[in-house]
């Protein structure tokens, strides 16, 4: 299997292992990636999910262009209501879009090497992006007379300053890890030799928190940013009310009073 997942101590890790293709993805492997994401999201033993690429050269360079021929199909054929009946090019666009999976757990994109095209589109749909010092990022679709199909333009504009995003989108240029850190595309950059350990430490810090609270914060962060202030506050009040009487919240307060590490059970 070239898309694998494992769970260790509440951290689920998905590895894209097509190193010979710089972890490019064709429809078969995109479906496998989605299955692993859905499985880990519904697994009660998982508190946080990390997506990474094998081989040390790339996180993911997007669609496998050798498996994505151009098509003469019309728009109606490329984008029917049923995803699985989509034409080849429409299928790529839809499979790179993760929004329909409704993943509740925090997602970390661990980028070591190239993160280009659909690879960056995947990373932009994660909650955190961390990078090794040799990572690079770009949406080069304009160079092949195309556009970022998996929400790349919209998500990049939301993630970083408009002027920087537009330059990346219109030129197809890449940026390195330090530039990505400076503009806020990534939260952390670590040396390649420490990258796996630092990523695991970050995932561990998230996994040790109350899982219901973490999932609620992810929901609030994604759903309230475009709401009017009053509606955002009301949704926050509702979230707090739902957590108020949980066993985890009682445990957190008791552990704090007793100066010990809390033991959360997700209830």
UniProtKB/TrEMBL annotation:
Protein name listed in UniProt: Enoyl-CoA hydratase/isomerase family protein
Alphabetical keyword list: Isomerase, Lyase
Domain of life according to the entry: Bacteria
Gene Ontology MF terms: isomerase activity; lyase activity
Family named by the database record: Belongs to the enoyl-CoA hydratase/isomerase family.
BP GO terms, sorted: fatty acid beta-oxidation
Gene3D superfamilies reported for this sequence: 2-enoyl-CoA Hydratase, Chain A, domain 1 (3.90.226.10), Lyase 2-enoyl-coa Hydratase, Chain A, domain 2 (1.10.12.10)
Native species: Azospirillum brasilense
InterPro entries, sorted: ClpP/crotonase-like_dom_sf, Enoyl-CoA_hyd/isom_CS, Enoyl-CoA_hydra/iso, Enoyl-CoA_hydra_C
Entries under PROSITE patterns matching the protein: ENOYL_COA_HYDRATASE (PS00166)
Keyword Transferase: no
A Pfam family: ECH_1
Keyword Lyase: yes
């Amino acid at each position: 299997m070239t898309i694998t997942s494992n769970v260790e101590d509440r951290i689920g890790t998905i590895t894209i292992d097509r190193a010979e293709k710089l972890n490019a993805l064709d429809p078969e492997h995109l479906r496998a990636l989605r299955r692993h994401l859905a499985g880990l999201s519904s697994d009660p033993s998982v508190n946080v999910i990390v997506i990474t690429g094998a081989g040390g050269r790339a996180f993911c360079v997007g669609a496998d262009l050798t498996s994505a021929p151009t098509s003469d199909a019309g728009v109606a054929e490329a984008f029917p209501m049923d995803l699985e009946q989509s034409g080849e090019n429409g299928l790529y666009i839809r499979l790179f879009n993760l929004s329909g999976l409704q993943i509740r757990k925090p997602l970390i994109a661990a980028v070591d090497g190239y993160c280009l095209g659909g690879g960056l589109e995947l990373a932009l749909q994660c909650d955190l992006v961390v990078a090794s010092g040799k990572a690079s990022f770009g949406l080069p679709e304009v160079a092949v007379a195309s556009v970022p199909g998996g929400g790349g333009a919209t998500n990049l504009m939301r993630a970083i300053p408009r002027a920087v995003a537009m330059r990346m989108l219109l030129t197809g240029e890449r940026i390195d890890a330090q530039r990505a850190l400076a503009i806020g595309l990534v939260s952390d950059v670590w040396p390649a030799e420490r990258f796996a350990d630092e990523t695991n430490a970050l995932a561990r810090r998230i996994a040790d928190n109350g899982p219901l609270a973490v999932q609620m914060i992810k929901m609030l962060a994604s759903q309230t940013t475009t709401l009017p202030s009053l509606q955002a506050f009301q949704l926050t009040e509702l979230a707090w009310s739902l957590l108020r009487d949980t066993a985890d919240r009682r445990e957190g307060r008791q552990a704090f009073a007793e100066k010990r590490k809390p033991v959360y059970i997700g209830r």
